[in-house]
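Operator note (shift B, R.M.): manual run for Restriction endonuclease subunit S requested after the automated queue skipped it. Running by hand, logging everything below so the morning shift can see what happened. Input copied straight from the record, untouched. If output looks odd, do not overwrite the archive copy; leave it for review.
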Amino acid sequence: MIIKDISSLCDSLSELLMIPGQIPQIRRAVLDLAVSGRLVPECDDAEDAAEYLSSVVHALEDEKPAKKLKGVERPQIGVSVPETWAPTMLGCISTDIRYGTSLKTSDSGEVPVLRMGNIQKQRLEFDKLKYLPLTPDLKHLMLEHGDILFNRTNSAALVGKSAVFHGGGPFTFASYLIRVRLHPDVEPDFVNLWLGSSAGREWANRVKTDAISQSNINGTSLGQFPLALPSRSEQVRIVERVEAILSLIDSFEVEKDELAARRRATTVAACNALVRRREKLLLDHADKLIRTSEDVDEVERTIFGLAVSGQLVPQRSSDFDGHALVAEFAESSKKKELAGAAFNLLKDPPFPIPDSWAWTTLGVAGNVVGGGTPRSGQDGCFTYDPSLGLPWFTPADLGGNASMYAPASRRFLTEAGLKSCSAQPLPAGSVLFSSRAPIGYVAILEQPASTNQGFKSFVPRRGLVSEFVYFWLRYWAPEIDAAAPSVTFREANKKAMERQPIPVPPVEEQHRIVDRVVQLMAVVRSLRDHIAA
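Run finished. Output pasted below as returned.
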């Protein structure tokens, strides 16, 4: 986003705010205007900051951050600033640059510990706090008003985020943060604008070092962060203007979130219309109820939620009991250790289900099967001729698939290829579930097939309908994703998948649910067509 000055920002602000995903960019644009001197007009008698900065730097020349910079050439700022501003480095204006505590925290204690998750949108949020006991070791790590907290280790997108501490009472900070304490004549909120600006983000991307799943910026690099300062009074004036503008943006965002919540409530009303078999009423009023593809996604997921919680079709006393079905699954299961996980579901189920339904785990209700890929360069493992091999799926094959059933695979695994790797034949009726990159693609096999290692597919036992499993995995996928560990990438492993819950209705009710959801999916397709038109 290129905004030349505050006038052009104000002229286009109302339009920009309505564009999805633009608010973070608008905030960044405000910071960019602030650190380039274009947010507020410069006074005719603006004070030259060179003398002011010289006195600050001279006062700190014997401090540790400044000593580390002796002989270091100041990097280019990368931003055009007014001639009255003076360039410097962060270490030259800091009295202390220090890493936080690595002591193990707990849910209670005397001293709250701020962590990287407490830094949001260039500000501190004082929720989800951990604590430490007050000990002499923490004395030099206590926060003071005006301290800047800098996130030194995080993902590549988030490393380098920062905020100013304006809290009261005793607080300390965790080891993934660096505390920067400035000379008292430097406005910390103005320095924080620099760290959060486009110039700050470009600097962070340039100096960070990358490791597995995380990036790092050390204290030495932070001390060399380049910035320019106006006079102290100008710093305060710019900060006040930024806070006023961001406050307006925050207010709009709250209103927008409230509007989104109201629209989600409307979406639920739309789903209630579907449950009550009033599809025509919904389609007749689609213009008012459903406005975006996200609204349709919400309708679809709510349908799945109703289906797997027993709220979509009525229960019948003549149906075979789901508890008896789960007992049969448990008897057939070779992994008796999963019975404990299934028992725990009875004590703490994810949500209420009808009395005739029963909870169990995927590992009891069927078999979770991984996949594999032949070694690179090994000849004769793949073919493009369907008659010469077994369909072989990767998560990319399911991307964009709108059907409940798996599309044609791009490649086929030969008998030699199947023997050369851990891929296993999956029978028709198996439910593919991508367990990484991304987690949550779901499709039912209509013919035998195999997959690469990006799947933890599910082969249901007799009595569990594949389509019902599909509805469940589509609904529950966000929970599986949220619980998946991340090393180089997020992945749901086989053991975790086997312990995932699944509700089991009587088999007759499963078929009624499938029939009803198939009807409703036709309505969902009509809504998608309506949005696309």
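Quick read of the result: The chain is about 40% helix and 15% strand. The first strand starts at residue 86 and ends at 89.
Leaving this for review. - R.M.
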